[in-house]
Amino acid sequence: MTAGTRAPGHLIALAKPDTSVWTMILVAVVVLLLLFLLLRHVVRRHGGWRRCRRRVARELTLTRRAFGEPLRAYRRHRRGVRTLARQLSDPRAGVLVRRLLDAAGAALGDVPGAFAYGLRTRPGWAAVQIAARRLPDPPAPWEADDGPGPQSWCLELDNADHAADVAALPDAAPRAGTRVRPLPVAVGMADDACVHLDLAAGPRMITVEGDSAARTRLLHALAAQLDRPGSGASVTVTDGVHPHHHGERLDTVLRELQDTPPASVAGEPQEVVTATTGVVVCAGPTREQARTLGALAASGTAVCLVDGPVPGHSWALRVDARGRVTAPELGLYADCAPLSRAVAAAVRADRRRSRRAPERGRPVEQAVEPRALPERRAPQPSDLTEEPTLPVQASPRTVTGSDLLSEPATARTRPAQASSTGDE
Question: Would the pTM of this model clear 0.85, i.e. be above it?
Answer without folding.
Answer: no
